[in-house]
Amino acid sequence: MNKSSGRKGLFLVTTGAIFWGISGTVSQKLFQQTAVDIQWLVTTRLLVAGMLLLSVQWLAKDRSQIVVVWKNKKTAFQLIAFGLLGMLAVQYTYMASIKYGNAAVATLLQYLAPVMIIIYLILRKQMVFTRKDLLTVFLALTGCFFLLTNGSVSQLSVPAVAVFWGVLSGGALAFYTLYAGPLLKQYDSLVIVGWAMIIGGLGLSVIHPPWQIDFKSLTPEAYVYLVFVILFGTMIAFWFYIESLQSLSPKETSLLGSLEPLAAVLTTVFWLKEPFGFFQWLGTACIIGLIVVLALKKNSSSK
Asked: pLDDT tens digits for 256-266?
């Protein structure tokens, strides 16, 4: 790998992770200041970002895959299931956790997904419990305890409903990660994720069509936030992350991906002025440490 491609990969993964993290905070700002609700935002975000990702595939990669993926009945069924139970579930539960709590806590709770995957694989006897697994579980439980209680066992630092949706978001992301594997081995990631977004968006459109909103009530500031969430926080963030894998190792990409929860926490605290106590910062450090441990483990096991 030459220096120029390395710098390009570093720029792509760093930018993508930061966009992901900030988009959660921007979504929280939308919920606080406008009449935009969760269902409309998730529907619109998925449909537009999905179409943009497929457009990138059409223009820059193997465009035939966009149609070929539907010619196999088994693959088509898996893609529909992935779009509804994976993509839509992840997006909706994450946004609901932001709506009822804040972007920092929602993002950090979503990062419980790797621990849920470890527990699932151990129960299925597909992996052996190691000392590093024990460390990751400890970091996850300790981090969540401090994050959600701020050191006080008598009360939660965020509403219980936000915790509920945040934990569901972690579970949905765990399913998303495990279920996507076989599909991503057969087709380009932009094809799978682009179609999954469109399927998820169409599924939620039955409940809340994207055109059912009073666009006149939205301020110019709200439109800027919407563009950022859809374009930068969804489409570009994913695209940059995938492209970074062409010039960086999985270890480097995973480690730099930990900038996502850090960006969410920093923008929530300093931009939205959300209160964040000492023990919540300690919990944040534990969960970011968890991500680093998992990334290092993934790299060592791949050698």
From this structure: 667 788 888 88
Long-range contact pairs involving 5-8 (C-beta distance under 8 Å, separation at least 24): 5/246, 5/247, 6/247, 6/248, 8/247
The count of residues in the chain is 303
Tell me: the pLDDT tens digits for 58-75? Answer: 999 999 999 999 999 999
Q: How far is Cα 89 from Cα 87, in angstroms, rounded to an integer? A: 6
Winning range, highest mean pLDDT, from 74-83, 183-192, 216-225, 239-248: 74-83
pLDDT value for 260: 82
Domain count of the fold of the chain: 1
Helices 38-60 and 237-244, packing angle to 10 deg = 40
pTM of the model: 0.85
Q: What are the φ/ψ torsions at residue 3 (nearest 5 degrees)? A: -65, -35
pLDDT in tens, 106-148: 988 887 887 888 888 888 877 777 887 788 888 888 888 888 8
Instruction: Give 219 or 137, the one with higher predicted confidence.
Output: 219
Containing domain of residue 289, as a range? 3-301
